[in-house]
Amino acid sequence: MPATTRTTLRRSLTAATVLPLLIGALASCGYGSDAKNDEKKVAAEGAKLSADTVRLGYFPNLTHATALVGDQEGLLQKELGGTKLVSTTFNAGPSEIEALNADSIDIGFIGPSPSINGYAKSKGANLRIISGSASGGVKLVVNPAKIKTLDDLKGKKIATPQKGNTQDVAFLNWIAEKGWKVDSASGKGDVSVVRTDNKTTPNAYKSGSIDGAWVPEPTASKLVSDGAKVLLDESDLWPDKKFVITNIIVSQKFLKAHPDVVEAFLRGAVKTNEWINANPDKAKASANAKLKDLSGKALGAKVIDAAWPSIQFTNDPLAATLQSQADHAVKAGLLEKPELAGIYDLKPLNKVLKAAGQPEVADAGLGVK
User: Fold this and answer.
1) Alpha helix locations (H) across 46-121?
2) Which of 120, 133, 266, 363 has its CA 20 to 30 A from that of 350?
3) Residues near 264 by Cβ (< 8 Å), separated by ≥ 6?
4) What is the spatial distance between Cα 249 and Cα 271, in angstroms, rounded to a whole number?
5) pLDDT (tens digit per residue) in 7-19
6) Element (H, E) at 40
7) What is the pTM of this model?
8) CA 33/CA 58 separation, integer angstroms
9) Average pLDDT, the chain
10) Which are the contacts of 207, defined by CB distance < 8 A and separation ≥ 6?
């Protein structure tokens, strides 16, 4: 074969080989019909954030309805896009803090007292409060045959969900303000404070092993449906009848590594609260559907209709009331005076609120510098 023929053939083979490879490379870089199909697939699945998964903790309580509804309606997952939301439920705050410290959850809905306790015990190293969620929804309910006035509580057995949880601290503080004495560790004293899982409190009431309970909703209204009477709504003890009952916390490790995921989650929480407040009946039904999914049984209409109006859903963490609750825990002997500076990081929330045209919220001087 002549040299010129061999050269021409070699050039033809090189072009035939390189051209398809070049086209494939261009397509993989975002050119061609295959790339367009890939872009459509990514858009359909949701934008990918910096974490594959975010692990959420919350309680099967109506005071955690932002989590219940946001999970049930997909409002949290929608904002997270391609980052998968995985949820776990807890009975009370101390166990959820343990899960956060063990790196079993990343974000949690939780009460103020375990947030304070967890932050103090870790010397400010484990969590940040990044948003409020709810106010109110806590009641003292009693057996009306045994207790007719607040003074009648002396000598009686009253349940709280767990030692050191938000309701436990609130009740111990109320007892102290009455001038009565109770050992915070054992619960023994002028009133017997019986730490009881919310799931078993109604049965304890029916059996007569407790005479009442200082508990969140829906446990309070469940007891009322069993014949108990509301003797005190905790909201009546607070200025403007507002106090934080549920915060949103995040591990500092997760916040540092995945600020985009945290911001997306907060967008979902803000949109969920907006939807709850605009659609109270639908939201109540949605929360009940999630409770049924979690427990196998929905709340009866009598229970949820009585419980729902006592809860206010708000993004404001009501930070000044957190400081008050810290003072209550110290007074009860459950906590040494904590240093709370830096417990809040509301910058991501305020960024979300500003973008949504909503007013920003304050940290009462307890935010990160």
Assistant:
1) 65-72, 75-80, 93-101, 112-121
2) 120
3) 49, 79, 80, 81, 83
4) 17
5) 443 444 344 443 3
6) helix 32-45
7) 0.83
8) 44
9) 88
10) none
